[in-house]
Amino acid sequence: MLTYEEVKNNDAIRIYIERANESLAALGYTEHSFAHVARVAETAGYILKTLDYSPRDVELVKIAGWLHDIGNLVNRIDHSQSGAVMAFRILDNLNCAPEDIATIVTAIGNHDEGTGVPVNAVAAALILADKSDVRRSRVRNRDPLTFDIHDRVNYSVTEAALEINPEHTQIRLRLRVDTQYGSVMDYFEIFMQRMLLCRRAAEKLGLQFKLMINDQQLI
């Protein structure tokens, strides 16, 4: 069976991730390179492992996390769908089992808030992991005077943690926001659709989604 480590260390996949990230850099988007995909993979794996899903499901969601943004190589628009098609070909060529390909491709094709739906547990965990990766280090622009709203919001987040409570009834995204750079209202202006998708993803996993910003519960 194909493993996460094999996918992570595949030279061709690493090139696709690098080039996709270069395209997003040219468009002024935040970092989408190895730091992002690794964080998404590990967080998604944490979610399913904590909820006692099978070791294979944990492995599949980590593979989906590593591959989820390669569609940006084609175009930012509809990158989840193009990424799913790319992943299908890559995984098929790596002799991945059809049932595993189906799960991974479905998750990738449903991870973006524009068209995504948490149709299964793997897709739900990928959504939560991806949309919770908000942090200062993803901002490429180093001049606060020229920040757009996305730069301001990401730069303002000095701490972020996604945690499932011991009772396995809630998943909480806890953020520490430096309001010198971005307000809580700024966060909701650009991320409301993402947070609503996170709520639906949490519900798919039998959890309540909670958003905490500076120790205040907002969702």
The stretches of 5 or more residues where confidence is low (pLDDT under 50) are: none
Q: Into how many domains do the coordinates divide?
A: 1
The arrangement of helices and strands along the chain is HHHHHHHHEEHEE
Query: In the CATH classification, which architecture applies?
Result: Orthogonal Bundle
Oligomer: single chain
Question: Which class of secondary structure composition applies to the elements?
Answer: alpha+beta
- Put simply, the count of helices is 9
Share in helix: 40-55%
Described by strand count, sense and barrel closure, the largest sheet is: 4 strands, mixed
CATH class wording: Mainly Alpha
Q: What characteristic shape results from the CA principal axes?
A: globular
Q: In whole angstroms, how far apart are the ends?
A: 40 Å
Radius of gyration: 17 Å
Mean residue pLDDT: 95
User: And the CATH topology?
Assistant: Hypothetical protein af1432
Provide the CATH superfamily: Hypothetical protein af1432
Order of strands in the sheet with the most strands? Answer: 1-2-3-4
Strand composition percent: 5-15%
Report the strand count: 4
